[in-house]
Amino acid sequence: MTTAVHGRSAAALVMVLAAATCTATGCATGADHPAAVPAAPPSSATTSPSAPTAPPSPATVLRQWEAVAGDHFTLSAEALQQVSEASAAGDESGLRSGCQQLHDANSIGLQRDLPTPDPKLTAELQRMIDDMNTATHACLRFILSRNTDDAGIYQDYLARAVDHLQRAKVILDADLAEK
Question: What is the pLDDT of residues 136-160, one digit of tens each?
Fold first, then answer.
């Protein structure tokens, strides 16, 4: 996957999850939250009623989420690179750190930004997070015990997590293509 494609994919995933923040918190207009509605101006013949404000567009909501959640995809990619390099170099400390960072970026960071506005996208990302969680725990167990079963579990669940992420990107691309 090229950097440009990865950047677009991460940005697109980030944008979709921004809508999740809005859905989860309400991202309400003033009409939904009376405290946010300004007091009516004094009655006068020269005052015209203000037009109601439209809710933010899906693209705007997605960009807002991107500003928050996009970092999780970047941190995950960086942690995965660290795991790969540390493993190749036999650097146990780097491997432990990379596995922990990979766990935290997904099982804590990205998890916090779910759900998305699309239940199918949310489901794929949740499966990815769950598989990444299993993979990173197996990675950390392997460091402690050197049990080759844990290394196999890490590899299998990491591959599954990547598959879910790729399916999530397909869903996201379709969501963004709909008019």
Answer: 999 999 999 989 999 999 999 999 9
Domain segments of the chain: what residues? Answer: 72-177
Backbone phi, then psi, for 6, in 5-degree steps? Answer: -60, -45
pTM: 0.66
| Alpha carbon distances (Å) from 133 to 16, 55, 100, 123, 136 | 22, 36, 10, 15, 5
Contact 109, 133 (CB under 8 A): no
Give per-residue pLDDT as tens, 99-147: 999 999 999 999 998 887 778 888 999 999 999 999 999 999 999 998 9
Which pLDDT value is given to residue 125?
92
Looking at every residue in the chain, the average pLDDT score rounds to 74
Could you give the CA distance from residue 17 to residue 13 in angstroms, rounded to a whole number?
6
Peptide bond into 115 cis (omega under 30): yes
Give the DSSP letter of residue 35. Answer: G
Rounded Cα–Cα distance for residues 28 and 36 (Å):
9
- Take residue 159 and report the two structure tokens written for it: 């591959």
Of 124, 100, 99, the closest CA to residue 13 belongs to: 124
Q: How far is Cα 16 from Cα 69, in angstroms, rounded to an integer?
A: 10
- Sign (positive or negative) of CA dihedral 19, 21, 22, 24: positive
Beta strands in 33-162 (DSSP E): none
